[in-house]
Each structure stands twice: as structure tokens, then as C-alpha cells.
Amino acid sequence: MKKKLAFVGIGQMGGGMAAHLTREGYALTGYDPSERSRDLAAKDGVKVVATLEEALRGAEVVLTSLPNPAITLDAWLGEGGILAHMAKGAVGIELSSIDPETMVAIGAEAAKCGVRMVDAPVSGGPLEAAAGKLVLMTGGKPEDIEAVGDILDCLCSSRHLTGDVGTGKTVKLVNNMMSMGNIVVAAEAFALGTAAGVEPQTLFDVLSQSGGRSHHFLKRFPKAIEGDYAPGFKIELGEKDVALGIELGRRLMQPTPAASVIREMIAVGMAGGRKGQDIVAMLDYYQTMSKPGTDKK
User: Fold this and answer.
1) What is the rounded CA–CA span in Å between residue 19 and residue 58?
2) 116-145 pLDDT tens trace
3) How much is the CA Rg of the chain, to the nearest whole Å?
4) What CA–CA distances, in Å, run from 38 to 45, 47, 93?
5) 218 close to 141: Cβ distance less than 8 angstroms
6) CA 109 – CA 160 distance, rounded (Å)
7) Is 152:145 a contact under the CB 8 Å cutoff?
8) Hey, which bits of 55-133 come out as E strands?
């Protein structure tokens, strides 16, 4: 029999995952402090409630997909938070892109409450979330991970054991540092090619078959060259993830100079009016930065 689930954080990513689990037959209740997110998830078939306590009532597994470390920490450990409502033996699955230190702190407190914790950040966007085609990086005790293996497998096309709780977040930050670097460098190079007179579609067609291509170049640039910057992965989330990776490097005394430059460039793109757009809006930034009066959008 499938377990009773609660899903906290049903925004763009969490909502897609919650809807997919619902379609696959899980008894799932979703909650988000945003009324708009609740309404959108409800339209997608998710049973939603207006309070955290209602969502958690009777849940055997609690999944969270939240925007940043502070919100995640408060959701789990704050007064009246998730752990306050979970029964001993229940399992938490933390899917957010946050720092490993915060994840370890949540895992330690969960253990004191008799709650088993699985660290499971994801790679992929809203389309993959809704289709159950994410990649999962799972940290925790193997037996705890396998206890919710059916749920994890429902969400993903592949999952990988990374080690203890916290290691999943580390791998996720490394992945996103690489991904954001790929996008920013590709945007800079692509803008150079078009500035030199190469037609954008021709440039993409050639580069998509050449050594400079990357997963995100193939996925995001076709829309970008049409001027479509609707968010699949918002630029501010890219900045946040690279900043978390840099901070992890600082704590470990591991230099991250290239990532630091990438973060600054994303911040400049955001300052130019691209908050809320997809990270690939960095292409628009590079294409307009040399044209006076066109950067603020």
C-alpha cells in the first residue's frame, strides 16, 4: 500500500512533483504559504490545504521543496514546524537546493525526534518535475533511502547515492556551479558570434553539434534565440546556488575564483532588470550590454 504523503513547498518545482505523485496514485496533501501556489497546484490535481498542520496530519512521508536555506531551516525546525508534527519512524525527503550544513542540521534534529531523513536534491526543471524525469542525488542511510525508494523512483529517471545526509546537497551545488558557468560562458560567446554577424539560428545549429555545447545550451538556447526568457529556472535561483557553492568553498578554504566571477556576472544581469526571467536571459544581457540605454528592462 502506498504511503500517505505531505508535500510542503508546492511552487514551480514542488507543485510539479506533487502533481506527478498524485497522478501516480499517492495520497498526497500539499501546502504552501503562497495562496497562488496553492491555487495553481489545486488546478493541477493536487489536494491542497491552507495550513501546515493540516498537511502534515497523519503523513508517513514529508517532502519539501523550498527556495533557500533560511526558509528550509525554519520550515523544519521552527516553532510549530514540520518536525513538531511528525511521528517517530516517519521519513522526511528534503528536495531543495540548499547548503549541506543546513541539511546536516536538519538531519541531526530529525534524528533526535526519531524521524529518518533523506537528502534528495534534484536536477531538472519544471517539465521534468511534472513528468517524473528528474535526476536525484540522495544522501542518507541506505535503508532510509530504500524505505521511500518507490517515491524517489516515481520522481526521477535516475537516482544516485552520494553518501551521508548533506552529501546530496554538496553534489547539487557542484552541479549547479558547473551548469551556471556553462550558461554564462555560452551566453557571452554566443553574443560575440552574433555581434560578428553570424545568424543566431545558424550559430546554434553549428554549436549544438560542436565541442562547446552543453546540456543547458541545447535545452535553453533555442528559446533564447527567439527572445523567450520565460522562467524554467529563474536567474535569481542560479545566483543563489552559485553563491551557496562559493560559501561552501570559503568554509572549506577551497578557492572558487571562476564561480565568483560567474556569480557577479549573474548579479549584474539581474541588476539590469532580468529578475524573474530564465537564467538564459544572460544572453539578452550580453547582447544588449554594449548598446547604451538598452540594458534596463
Assistant:
1) 20
2) 999 999 999 999 999 999 999 999 999 999
3) 20
4) 11, 9, 20
5) no
6) 24
7) yes
8) 61-64, 91-94, 116-119, 122-123
